[in-house]
What we know:
The protein has 383 residues and is α/β, with parallel strands linked by helices. It is 41% helix and 16% strand. It contains 14 helices and twelve strands. The strands form four sheets. It has a four-stranded parallel β-sheet with strand order 4-7-3-8, covered by helices on one side. A four-stranded antiparallel β-sheet has the order 9-12-11-10. It has a two-stranded antiparallel ribbon with strand order 1-2. Strand 1 (6-8) and strand 2 (13-15) form a beta hairpin. Helix 3 (93-105) runs parallel beside helix 7 (223-229) and helix 11 (292-308) crosses helix 12 (315-325). The longest helix has 17 residues, at 231-247. It is elongated, with a radius of gyration of 24 Å.
Amino acid sequence: MITRVGYYKEDRLWYEPSTALKTMPGIPKEPTQIDVKKARSLLCNDLLGDFPFVTEADKATMIAAFILPFVIRRFDGQTPIHLIEAPVQGSGKTILASLVSIVATGKASVPIIFSQSEEENHKALAAELSKRKPIITIDNVDTSYRPLKSPTLSSITTESYFSSRILGTSEMMEIPNQAVWIMTGNNVKIAQDLIRRFIRCRIDPGEENPWMRNPKQFRHPDIKQWTKENRSQIVHAILTLCEAWRQSEKDLEVKSLGSFEAWSETIGGILEVAEIPGFLDNLEDFYGMSNEESESFAPLIQAWQEEFGNSPVKAKHLQELCESKELMLETRGHGTDHSQRTRLGRALKSANGRVFGNRKIMAQMDKRSKTLEYCLTPIQTDE
C-alpha cells in the first residue's frame, strides 16, 4: 500500500499527495467489518446511490471501474473495457465515466470520440496512451448503423504494449498500456470478435427525457462537485476495501473472464470480501443483447431446425428459407438472389463451429457436388 510520501524504487514511483488527499486518514492495517461496511456504504450509497443501475451486476461493474486505477499495477495482464450504456441519451453515462477519473486523478478526463475511420481511431488512441493517461474514455459510441468493430481496441485490451508508427517517420514506438478503459453509448452493439473484451454497466432512468429531471430529487444535485469535495473519503474507502482483501485469509472463488484472469481474481476478490454482489453476473445477458450477429442468427437457427432438422443443407436452401421467413435481412442485404446467397454463405462460413443455444453450426463438403453443406449438431448439456 503506497501511502507514504517519497520515492518507491521498486515501483519506480514518486508519491506526493495532492491537497485533497493530504487530509486523508491512514488506511487501517487490518480493516474490521465495521470499516468495510462504512467503506461499502460510501461507494454504493453516497457516491452511486442516485444512478439507476438495472441490476446489482451493473453496479458491481461500475464499482470495479472505481477500484481498478488503484490496483492496476498490482497484477500482470490486461483489463477489459468498461462499457457504460443506457437506452437513451441524458441518462448519466458520461457523468459516471467522469466520476471514475475524478476519484482516481482529481479531475474529469477529456473523452475522445470514435470515428468511422479505423486509421483515425488508431492515431487517437495511440496519442492518448502516449500521454500516459490513467483513464481513457471513449464517449457516445454510435452503433445504430453497424456493430462496433475495431482491431485497434482488440489489440489494446490484450497487449501490455501498444505499437504505433511515429508521426512523420517510418519508425515504430511501443507505448506501455496501463490505462483504465471506459466506453459509453446507447444500446451498444458489438461485433463477435470484440464483445468478449467488454464488461457492462447498464443504467436505465425509465424516463423519456431523463436530462430534464429536477436536480433537487438527487442525493447530491451536483455529483461531480460533491465527488471532488469528498475525494479523500472516497479514495480512503476504496483503499480500505483493497486492504481488507489483501489481509483476507478466505479461500475466494470468484468468476473469471477469459484473457483477463489476473484482473478477475483481483477485482472479483476485492468485491467478494467487501460483500458487493453481482460481479460478472450479467455477462450472458450482455452478450446476448449486444451481439447483433447472435441476435440475427437465433431466429434462423430455430427455423432451420424446424425445416431441416439435423440434416445437411446447402446455402441456397437456407437462402430460400430466409427469403420465405424474412430472416437475416441485414446480413443478406438487398441485392440479387445470387448476391444474397453469397453473403449468407460468407456468414455461415464465419459461423462454422459456433454454438447458438443448444446447436452448433458445422460445415462439411458434399463429395458429389463439391459444394459446402451445413448442418446443426446438438450440443450435449449436463443435466
